[in-house]
């Protein structure tokens, strides 16, 4: 029991000596740090990695903007007009640049062309789309059409406001206007259908009109129109003469091939034998 106590005392003394040694080492290290900072070796400085160069993640967008601003003036003007037409809002040059990347302030040719364009209205600060007819809704559209009893081209109304084409179809469906095609230009023309002048045609007159037999040859029809003081829209005689000069004969309609019934034909109406009395043997 005495030997065990002696061993324990020795171990405690060793622990105390180790603790004293560690405390003295820590004290010396702290004093050196306060008096003179430790110098960093030159080799360590040279080996330190340089900061990485960060490239823009927006490279494609910047290239797209650059291609727009280097495009011809006409292409840039179209881009701006499309923006004004779609949004129907007024934009400053700075807002146009943000929306479609056309920098009118930096390009005098673009700015001047935009300001003078007949489809653009400029109030000194902002650009807006300018349609041929300043309309806002269906009622104003109908009032305008009624001012043109000889008709107004639909192409002149297309850009009045976003839903103008739908309103034209609605006015047509309700019988307030007529939409007819121009024979020469194949463009639709809007005509007013004045409700103050309702026209009712007697059934007897309709029958007389439908019973009129027209000539079979187009040349005869054109002659009859001329006799009545009307100008035909076609000139069949001239067209046929030109075709003969160029050796182009009249187009003949291909004859339809008769489908005759034979024994090999699949009969689906076998319950009607009278239909197959002339069945060919083949």
From TrEMBL:
One of its GO terms (cellular component) is transcription factor TFIIE complex. Residues 26-51, 229-282 are annotated as: Disordered. GO terms for biological process: transcription initiation at RNA polymerase II promoter. GO terms for molecular function: DNA binding; TFIIH-class transcription factor complex binding. Residues 252-266 have a biased composition (Basic residues). Pfam families: TFA2_Winged_2 (PF18121). InterPro entries: TFA2_Winged_2 (IPR040501), TFIIE-bsu (IPR016656), TFIIE_bsu_DNA-bd (IPR003166). Residues 33-44 have a biased composition (Low complexity). Keywords: DNA-binding, Nucleus, Transcription, Transcription regulation. The keyword Hydrolase does not apply. Tetramer of two alpha and two beta chains. Recruits TFIIH to the initiation complex and stimulates the RNA polymerase II C-terminal domain kinase and DNA-dependent ATPase activities of TFIIH. Both TFIIH and TFIIE are required for promoter clearance by RNA polymerase. Belongs to the TFIIE beta subunit family. This is Transcription initiation factor IIE subunit beta.
